[in-house]
Write a structure and sequence with these properties.
- By secondary structure, the protein is mainly α.
- Among the domains are: 87 residues, no CATH class; 38 residues.
- The protein is 84% helix and 0% strand.
- It has five helices and no strands.
- Helix 2 packs across helix 4.
- The radius of gyration is 54 Å and the shape is rod-shaped.
């Protein structure tokens, strides 16, 4: 019983130490940066292999490899042969089977990474489209506000017409004032002449 109790206490102490330790010293559930880098390196390697397998040079090389393999194991001396044509080139068949079994997962891995990149690119395109739409709406509102402001402002023709009408009104008033002054002067002269005529007989009688 004592060893079991000690083991249980050690486990509880380790758990307590993990919970009491700072966050940076605990074992993180998320993958570390080194793990992400190793996965990225492996993913890039798989993409390179899959990209190489999809080129014409890979097909030409694989064809030449198979031809050389079969010719050598058919024409070479018996003690140099390592694969028998009598049993259907078993070693070559095994190698090609292994190559095909590894090629499919590599292609799937490369396709998954491409799908992830496409998903990220689609998300970035969507965010960019939303920003462009917001900018376009903002510019449209600004243009409408500017048009309304310009419509409320007086144009040059309107100001010129108002000034012309104001000048005409001032000229008319000046003409009326001049006419009124001339009329008053004429009336004053007539009054003075009448007064002079009335004063002349009075002087003669005296």
């Amino acid at each position: 019983m004592a060893p079991a109790d000690n083991t249980r206490s050690d486990r509880s102490d380790r758990t307590a130490n993990r919970l009491d330790s700072p966050k940076g010293m605990r074992t993180s559930v998320l993958p570390s940066r080194r793990g992400r880098q190793s996965r990225d390196t492996f993913g890039r390697a798989t993409e390179g292999i899959a990209r190489g397998m999809g080129t014409p040079w890979f097909l030409i090389g694989l064809t030449l490899f198979c031809v050389v393999w079969m010719v050598f194991n058919t024409v070479a001396p018996q003690h140099w042969r390592f694969d028998s044509a009598a049993i259907g080139f078993t070693a070559l068949t095994l190698i090609l089977s292994l190559q095909a079994s590894y090629a499919a997962p590599l292609i799937l891995l490369a396709q998954n990474r491409q799908d992830d990149r496409d998903r990220v690119q689609f998300e970035q395109d969507r965010q960019r489209a939303e920003r462009n739409l917001a900018d376009t709406e903002y510019l449209a509102r600004e243009v409408v506000a500017l048009r309304l402001a310009v419509r409320d402002m007086a144009s040059k023709d309107f100001i010129r017409a108002e000034l012309r009408s104001l000048l005409e009104e001032l000229d008319r008033r000046d003409e009326e004032a001049a006419l009124t002054a001339a009329t008053e002067r004429s009336d004053a002269a007539d009054d003075a002449a009448k007064d002079a005529q009335e004063a002349a007989p009075t002087g003669l009688h005296g």
